[in-house]
Amino acid sequence: MLGESIGKNGILLGLFAVLTTGIISGTYLSTRGKISDNIRHAEEKALLEIIPRSRHDNSMLDDSLPISDSSLLGLREEKRVYIAMNKSQPIAVILPSTARDGYTGDVDMIIGINLDGSVAGVRVLNHRETPGLGDQVDYKKSHWVDGFIGHSLESTSTAQWKVKKDKGIFDQFTGATITPRAVTAAVHRALQYFDANRDQLFTQLALEQKQSAGETAQ
């Protein structure tokens, strides 16, 4: 009797495990596409805050390139650079950048740069800065990052790419200097990266598009 009871319980547990696994797998498969679409939508929304649809006619998510760690961008892992185009001509790029010298750690951001080398916009994507102080780099808290728009390596000298406390031209926050100092330096380095790699980025994109078109034709 005891053996039969254990056997039945084992079978029931096995069936329960199979049923549970099936439900979980079915739920995952049915929602995987929606989750992927939601992530893509969130990414696109962030990009469009910097380069609005009125300026380009391509999908920046599709016209992107992998970019590895760079001393200028401070990346800790491979990310992507997005390229905005209008009538098949590049008009701007959006570079990933990490300021590793934030007050409480890394400050991850994306930086839009126009073809002429001027800043199109900046958005901080992730940070752990102090609420009420350093967190003003977050666009939801303040529009401080808009102060970079229009500045370039040509219009703003290296000495000026600092916060005012360091004799530069960019504002810092009341009671907080480290975070805006780190972000300002990161934006400057991103402009330097773009200046040094501009032609290579556009050439690489054109090559990948050509290869993709050839694969599609086949």
Automatic annotation (TrEMBL):
Do you know which InterPro entries this protein is assigned to?
Answer: FMN-bd, Ion_transpt_RnfG/RsxG
FMN-binding domain residues are 102-194
Single GO MF descriptor: FMN binding
What's a single GO CC term here?
plasma membrane
Q: What class of enzyme is it?
A: translocase
SMART domains according to UniProt: FMN_bind
Record key words, sorted: Cell inner membrane, Cell membrane, Electron transport, Flavoprotein, FMN, Membrane, Phosphoprotein, Translocase, Transmembrane, Transmembrane helix, Transport
Bilayer-crossing regions = 12-31
FMN phosphoryl threonine modification sites are T177
Q: How does it sit in the membrane?
A: Single-pass membrane protein
Signal peptide positions are none
Q: Does the keyword Ion transport apply?
A: no
What does the entry give for GO biological process? electron transport chain
Subcellular location, record wording: Cell inner membrane
What Enzyme Commission number(s) does the record list for this chain?
Answer: 7.-.-.-
- Cofactor field: FMN
In which family does this protein belong, per the annotation?
A: Belongs to the RnfG family.
NCBIfam families according to UniProt = PRK01908.1, rnfG
Q: Indicate the quaternary assembly.
A: The complex is composed of six subunits: RnfA, RnfB, RnfC, RnfD, RnfE and RnfG.
Question: What role is this protein assigned?
Answer: Part of a membrane-bound complex that couples electron transfer with translocation of ions across the membrane.
Q: What is this protein called?
A: Ion-translocating oxidoreductase complex subunit G
Q: Which organism is it from?
A: Spongiibacter pelagi
Gene name linked to the record: rsxG
